[in-house]
Amino acid sequence: MLRTFSSKKPIFDKILVANRGEIACRVMKTAKRMGIKTVAVYSDADENSLHVKSADEAVYLGPPPSNQSYLLDDKIIEAALKTGAQAIHPGYGFLSEKESFSNLVTNNGLAFIGPRGDAIRDMGCKIASKKIAKEAGVTTIPGYIGEVHDLDRVIEIAHEIGYPIMIKAAGGGGGKGMRIAWNDEEAREGFRLSKDEAMSAFGDDRILIERYIDNPRHIEIQVLADKYGNCVYVNERECSIQRRNQKVIEEAPSVFLDKKTRKMMGEQACSLSRAVGYDSAGTVEFIVDPKKNFFFLEMNTRLQVEHPVTELTTGLDLVEHMIRVAGGEKLSVTQDDIKIKGWAMESRVYAEDPFRNFLPSIGTLTRYVQPTGDKVRIDTGVVEGSEISMYYDPLISKLCTYGETRSEAIKNMEEALDSYVIEGVGHNIPFLRAILGQERYRSGNLTTKYIGEEWPEGFKGIILNENQKDDLAVFTTAIHILRNKRDATINNKMNNYEYKFEKFVTELMEKDYNICVKEIENGFLFNVNGKDIEMTDICWKPEQPIFKAKLNGEKKICQMINILPEGYGMRFFGTMFKVAVRTPQQAELFKYMPEPIVIDYSKFLCAPMPGMIFSITDKKAGDKVSEGEELCIIEAMKMQNMLKAPKDTVIKKICVKQGENVGVDAILIEYED
């Protein structure tokens, strides 16, 4: 439970939330609890979104692209003044770390629920922040402190400090505009892509170069500061599980830190905050090597995406503290008040396909059922029927769980993920579930290279062991029996329907499971290839996705996602499996079915995701291309993805133009062979 200040009067009567999605809903939740009315802003794409429905008022901004809606600071100020809002909370992303917006808010007589503009400026520039951090006694990463403007200088610096290097945008964050280079060729390519991506995402293509620390952990310190010089650190968050420099799973506290290191990192974070006159919630990010040496990475001058794990382990409502500090109150907590209670984890649930290199997925949430429980928290901006748009970040929700210990928090997260139903778009739950099940993750042996090391060839799905395969075969067979039982009852074909003894052949992953089933009190007794499995305490309604039961006394969960023309689409441990249940006679006849025709796509370059054609090769029909040659860049969800020639070939046809929007699997280029 979050500690609140219910006895205090509201600081503001009304605030405007200059954001969308889950963070807008999150801010509104605290504001409403404080008795403060809220104003939402929205684009055409978000007209019927949850954050609009959650607000007391809503103001239209413009078309879906961010630069025509959520980045229009003048329109947002106009909306605040028009509705009588006294303050603006920027959330994260969009305008939250834009110095000019913070100043514009205060210059119009409104309170900015965030830090002062000069603090945003100083910390928003990675070059300036590194200089200030060094002067404040904060340990920094070796590198070149200054802007880098051309390729020759990039190579020169790389040779001075040594490879590997990190090429990253001087402004912005969130993993965008960042590339690791291990040689000159990668440095040239990374510099160009980082500049383009940074300009697209932040409107700022300044680049800095620093030494890349190999095998680090990413650990950040939450700070809270007020306008009177008070500053506290609210412990750490472990954010080492990352993909493309984007956090995937976070937790608090870190299994790696001891009290001494935590104190040193926290005190340095507060020193930096005081050095820039910081006066809100913020996060100082560090990388930590295996010997617990830590180095300043950057400061995020906003509410962090993963702030819920800090709230769950401290009891503090960070949004409420931001609002009260913006209203001129002193911090109500001291450093001695900050404790660590239990363990919390956050899984970022994204609309992206882990089986296709995590490419974004867009569409309508045709079915959406969230897990529940007193140790489960979900921050989301969607409901069933919501649209996942190509215009914004594909985050569906932040799923958080709590436990007295890390093991309990992991167990609760596994159960929550198994109970989370999302249909209509691809999502990364299979990947999240696979991470949690790994012994390495459970042991706390984490680095920012974890995902690349564990899945060097890309994620192919969870690998079930033999016992798990038996469990899935039993689950699917039980569903088949219960559906047939329901159908027979509905059709009046059988009274007092009962399976006394029956045989099935259940096919899973090209293997047949010979199953005998007997109905018993409170469930079924299965014999799977000679192994007995007792299923009891069944919790399932026909055609509902979530199926819960005890298998030999242990609670298990699976999902029936759809009924296929031949079998069932089952989700188990987060991953989809096709499972067919047949009678022995049907199984025998199935052997004579013809093999399905496989379509050959090797002659085409297809779009792996929906997005906009940022660039397309200037080659024409009849031109030769070499293996690895850049052919196209697709921009989606503010990220640029380069597509290269898979082999030496000849172009037959260019099917798209620069600036064109394409869907997933759209043919971009056709080859001669």
Annotation keywords:
673 residues; alpha+beta; 8-stranded antiparallel beta sheet; 8-stranded antiparallel beta barrel; 17 helices
Task: Please give a structural write-up.
There is one protein chain. The protein is 27% helix and 32% strand. A hairpin with a 5-residue loop joins strand 12 and strand 13. The strands form nine sheets. The protein has an eight-stranded antiparallel sheet with strand order 13-12-9-10-11-14-21-19. Strands 23-24-25-26-27-28-29-30 form an eight-stranded antiparallel beta barrel. The protein has 673 residues and is of the alpha+beta class. The relative contact order is 0.08. It contains 17 helices and 38 strands. It is an enzyme of class 6 (ligase). Keywords: ATP-binding, Biotin, Ligase, Lipid degradation, Lipid metabolism, Magnesium, Manganese, Metal-binding, Nucleotide-binding. This is propionyl-CoA carboxylase. Its cofactor is biotin.
Mean pLDDT: 92
Q: Compute the number of helices.
A: 17
Amino-to-carboxy terminus distance? 62 Å
Query: Ranges with pLDDT <50 over ≥5 residues?
Result: none
Per DSSP E runs of 2 or more residues, the count of β-strands stands at 38
Structural class: alpha+beta
Strand order of the largest sheet: 13-12-9-10-11-14-21-19
- Calculate Rg over CA atoms: 27 Å
What is the helical fraction, as a range of percent?
25-40%
Estimated share of beta-strand residues: 25-35%
**General shape:** globular
Question: Tell me about the biggest sheet?
Answer: 8 strands, antiparallel
Enzyme class: ligase
InterPro entries: ATP-grasp, BC-like_N, Biotin_BS, Biotin_carboxylase_complex, Biotin_carboxylation_dom, Biotin_COase_C, Biotin_lipoyl, CPAse_ATP-bd
Cofactor: biotin
Domain Biotin carboxylation: 11-456
